[in-house]
Amino acid sequence: ANRGERRVTIVDKSGNDIRDIGPSGPYATARFSPNGLRAVVSEEDFTTSIISLHLLEFERSFFSRFTAGPDDERSAIWTVDGAGIVFHSNRPNAAGIYRRGAGGRSTDDELLLADTVALAPTGFSSDGKRLLFTKGSGPDQRIWILPIDEPPQTRKPVQAFPGVSVAQLQARFSPDDKWIVYAEGSIP
Question: Are 106 and 98 spatial neighbours (Cβ–Cβ below 8 Å)?
């Protein structure tokens, strides 16, 4: 499909389409909620390259805007309990990683980490207390860990693999939190 007419489609483990959900649109990514009943969907404005986030409720095929305003907001992931979404926002006053409740009524965003360098949340530890994210872009992209259960003033990110000189991306914790799986090199 062309960029503006993509669909969110549920597929089985063999890759066979089960059903399309919601309207077609200029979607870039979709991430399931932990209970599998909703997805956070990124939608790109091709004239500005700005990405906005939307919630898609599968049962009713209900599609609603999650983030509002002109800011570029992307790399959305669900919190472990499914009550919130963490994402990167390129806001002029504080670019960084934000958390917002996914209940549909919340408009309050908690700034988890501010930085002028590109940040992208990628995964949580199983208890939801540590957030994996990448910092940087291209060959300078590295994996970091942010302890989000600490008070904001003492929250300090640490690099997961210091001294590595190749790009690292798409990090996730193993189910037992003992390992981190990630990709090395840059994506074309």
Answer: no
